[in-house]
Amino acid sequence: MVLKSAIELDIIEIIFTATSEGGCACISVISPAKIAARIPSKNPDASVLLDRMLRLLASYDILKCSTCIKENGEVERAYSEGPTCKFLVKLKVHGFKELVDVGDGIGVAINIISSKHPHIQGTNYDLPHVIADAPNDERCFITLITHTRASEPLTYYKAFYVLGVEHVGGSDERCLKLLKNCWEALPRDGKVIIVESILPVAPENIASSHIVFEQDLLMLARNPGG
User: Fold this and answer.
1) Which of 85, 89, 147, 164 is the most buried (most CB within 10 A)?
2) What is the DSSP string of 171-222?
3) Mean pLDDT across the stretch 131-152?
4) Is the pTM of this model over 0.70?
């Protein structure tokens, strides 16, 4: 709940930006009072309330906390970005205005991306029966894959987004063919963006482990050779 509130209030974004401006996040910190001044709050105790939230996040290594003794003897805490903050702040998308999502189903991912970054024109690239009921979005095109086109090079685009297609794409050769087609369709400064899970070395009883191991068993059940 505290982390959710910190993200919704842009507190993580404020800390990440402030402690990175100097080019050396390891020594740059920001106090709760300065954070409170940057959020739309009229509560006179906002800095105290923020400090209580931030010290909890620091105890989980989401933030880093440093302390100093003020002239009156009080301890003052200041905060900087932790190792996981980069996953909690807004991503800056640059370098392309068109994005093709290969195998996105009804287009959930590409619609989310284009809604967050309106300058991007999205294309959902999938089989006809998969996208038959896909919702219409003025920012996204729908492109059908026929059985003959599936093995042909893709249209010339600047960026391709591939999310977990390897899990349901069949053999390794078929997956490599898909990625190669994406690569061959790119201009010199284009990008193939692959979003994929990484299996942990040792299993843990946490949600992220459950998800990736279930995906691994899905591959074992559906794909030749697992």
Assistant:
1) 85
2) SHHHHHHHHHHHHHT--TT-EEEEE-----SS--SSHHHHHHHHHHHHHHHH
3) 56
4) no
Q: In 3D, which of 47, 54, 46 has the Cα closest to residue 15? A: 54
Position 5, amino acid:
S
Quick one: CATH architecture of 2-87? Answer: Orthogonal Bundle (1.10)
Q: Domain 98-195 has what CATH class? A: alpha beta
Q: Give the pLDDT confidence of 36-68 residue by residue, as tens digits.
A: 998 888 888 988 999 999 999 999 888 889 888
Min mean pLDDT across 26-30, 137-141, 214-218 is at 137-141
Report residue 123 as tokens: 């294309």
Q: Cα 54 to chain center, whole Å?
A: 23
Instruction: Please report where in the chains the tokens 């903050």 appear, as a residue.
Output: 85
Q: How far apart are CA 7 and CA 16, in angstroms?
A: 11
Among candidate residues 34, 16, 33, the one with its CA nearest the CA of residue 25? 16
Q: Between these two residues, 135 and 111, which has the higher pLDDT value?
A: 111
Neighbours of 179 (CB within 10 A): 17
DSSP annotation string for 39-102: SS---TTHHHHHHHHHHHHHHTTSEEEEEEE-TTS-EEEEEEE-TTGGGTSPPPP-S-SEEEEE
The domain limits of the chain are: 2-87, 98-195
Phi, psi at 79, each rounded to 5°:
-130, 155
